[in-house]
Write a structure and sequence with these properties.
Length: about 375
């Protein structure tokens, strides 16, 4: 072990990875996941879906274009930690306003660099996601394992990242009013709806059906978010109460919650899908979309039978469910992120489908 190392990562299975800390210096127990994106570390760091997770970036140089004020996905990042091969603290981007380390420090997020991220990624791929402690270099392995074992697995992530009161994002000459249920919503989803003529009212995750009906929405959107979808019972019940009353569109966690509300099952993937390069087949058109993804759970394809949901998209890497719909109720959802920025633009049509569904509902009202 060289003296230049001042931090280390200890996995619950006993492996140690030595590196150098940046950002906040606190200890953290997190679930380890990896992301294969070549760009977009600011969007990853500020995506609420990464709450309680330490993200291993497979691209080797991180921090080189800094942080820009306009590109956050949430105002207060809640990622558990960031693990990189090489951290660059001298950005060469005319738009940058702060460094990545400054943002991590401001939000009490620990980071570690000089890690062999290729070895760590292979370990996650082969053995699955595991928990780990990001700690000081002098912490004994036995003590680190005790701290990991003594840290409960959280089940309240959505309640922590959701807004505490409703807020509004309006646009000029709007045509539709959308209520977005915030389970950890990315700001670019709101921007994508605004760009298509929607005024958006963002409400807390535990808002009930009566409150949403009182807002008279043209459509309801269910956002992405962290954690196990089975923990988010209020939103599952909300879908059951509102389906058939107004068009409903869900992304990522919202997709899983819609599936659970209709009676399907979800399960945890071995290491999840995270990155901007997942091929997804649209079963209606036969087209292949290159998608951006971030999730640990998936919908069980076999459990869709008899639910009233139709399979619309599949992942070509592992044949997992990527999209479902119920035409009768004007409900549809996808597992991936059509709003992802930066990232593939192949899937922007899904927002247009939501607009079309709201137009049709207005005509039949």
């Amino acid at each position: 072990m060289e003296k230049r190392f001042d931090r280390k990562l200890v996995l619950e299975t006993g492996e140690e990875y030595y590196g150098r800390g940046f950002g906040d210096g606190r200890e953290a127990v997190c679930e380890l996941v990896f992301n294969t994106s070549m760009v977009g570390y600011q969007e990853i760091v500020s995506d609420p879906s990464y709450t309680d997770q330490a993200v291993v970036m497979t691209y080797p140089i991180i921090g080189n274009y800094g942080i820009t004020d306009d590109d956050f996905e949430t105002k207060t990042p809640t990622i558990g930690g960031l693990i990189v091969r090489e951290y660059n603290d001298q950005p060469s981007n005319f738009r940058y306003t702060r460094t990545l380390a400054e943002i991590l420090e401001e939000n009490h997020i620990p980071g570690i660099s000089q890690i062999d991220t290729r070895k760590l990624t292979r370990s996650i791929r082969d053995k699955g996601s595991r928990r780990a402690l990001l700690t000081g270099v002098d912490t004994p392995v036995e003590e680190a394992l005790k701290r990991i074992a003594g840290t409960p697995v959280p089940h309240d992530a959505v309640s922590r990242v959701s807004c505490k009161k409703r807020w509004y994002s309006r646009t000029a000459n709007h045509r539709f009013n959308v209520v977005a249920v915030d389970c950890g919503i990315k700001l670019n989803i709101v921007r994508s709806l605004n760009a298509r003529g929607c005024n958006v009212t963002v409400v807390p995750w535990n808002t009930d059906a009566a409150q949403i009906r009182a807002m008279k929405p043209d459509g309801v959107f269910l956002s992405n978010g962290p954690g196990d979808p089975e923990d988010v019972v209020p939103v599952i019940e909300l879908v059951r109460a509102l389906r058939g009353e107004a068009p409903i569109f869900g992304i990522c966690l919202g997709h899983q919650l819609i599936s659970l509300a209709y009676g399907a099952r979800t399960y945890k993937l071995k290491f999840g899908h995270r990155g901007g390069n997942h091929p997804v087949k649209n079963l209606e058109t036969g087209k292949i979309e290159i998608t951006s993804q971030n999730h640990s759970y998936a919908v069980d394809a076999d459990s869709l039978a008899g639910t009233g949901l139709e399979l619309t998209h599949i992942n070509l890497l592992d044949n997992t469910v990527e999209g479902v719909r119920c035409e009768r109720d004007r409900v549809f959802s996808v597992q991936y992120h059509p709003e992802s920025a930066p990232g593939p633009q192949d899937s922007g049509y899904l927002f247009d489908r939501f607009i079309k569904s709201m137009k049709e509902a207005q005509r039949h009202a």
